[in-house]
Amino acid sequence: MKKSNYYDYIAQIYDQTRWLTESVAEEVADFILKLTCATPETSFLEPGVGTGLNVIPLVKRGYSVTGIDASQEMLDQFRQKLNVTPSNLKLIHGDASQLPFPDNSFDVVLTVHMIHTVSDWRVFLDNIDQVLKSRGFYLNCQWITPPARREFEGYFRDILSKYEGTKQKSPSINIATNKIDVEGYLQQKGYVSNYFVAKEWRVSNTVEELISFFKARAYGLCWRVSDDIFHQLINEFEEFCINHYGSLKTNLSSEAKFEIWVYKAI
Question: Which end of the chain is more exposed for a tag (fewer CB within 10 A), N or C?
Fold first, then answer.
């Protein structure tokens, strides 16, 4: 039997429940191309490529892009964004923590908020080091949650904590628990590093819209309790939000960031 995967469940709603938009992704792509001094021959790899939000601007501009992801449904969503799968795009259904490529295959490897999901981050970084070409770039990226949404999630977590004893077996979400030190590990390998904020932008959602994302169980923490308990939890959370925010139509707005830690092979 196929092993369930959390991302399979949320593939169709993934993009709409996150806060990186297509226009922002285009600007981030501009930043990355300039940062890596990309030429038409520059090749990109994204392990954990998902629905392609981060790299689809590169694909549309003709760059060679390879993506690997454990969720077939997420990859299907990626393909649906394109009329046909172009020759410069290769998508692989497989374990994104294992990179089945020859040494020196890519000019740029980027990961976006995914290292915490691999079972052994050191082995994963070793693999990245191997598949990178000489003087290649590894970009360790994150979309930083807008503070208003982070606060909103915090209220949900507070209520969720009361139900933690009623867990069910959730779809597979592999989260590494040991401390991850990408900076220190790659510096030992001779990489030099730098940090950039590629883009800041304002994200706005109504309380009602954010609750709908939780109702759809769009985030991993929504799978920590049984279905029956989850409905109970959502009802309590919605009542809290009405009391706390005054209305489900209240708009929550704050700044998001796209951060990049750049590691250059020397």
Answer: N
pLDDT (tens digit per residue) in 102-145? 999 999 999 999 998 898 999 999 999 999 999 999 999 999 99
Q: How many domains does the chain have?
A: 1
Contacts of 7 (CB under 8 A, 6+ apart): 14, 50, 69, 70, 71, 73, 74
> Could you give the CA distance from residue 173 to residue 237 in angstroms, rounded to a whole number?
24
| Nearest CA among 173, 163, 147, 179 for reference residue 226 | 163
In terms of C-beta distances under 8 Å and separation of at least 24 residues, what long-range contacts does 33-37 make, across chains too? 33/58, 35/137, 35/139, 35/196, 35/198, 35/260, 35/262, 36/107, 36/108, 36/137, 36/139
What digits encode the pLDDT tens for the residues 6-47?
899 999 999 999 999 999 999 999 999 999 999 999 999 999
- We report the CATH number of the domain holding residue 133 as 3.40.50.150
Number of H helices, E strands in the chain: 10, 7
Q: How far apart are CA 45 and CA 99, in angstroms?
A: 10
**Model pTM score:** 0.90
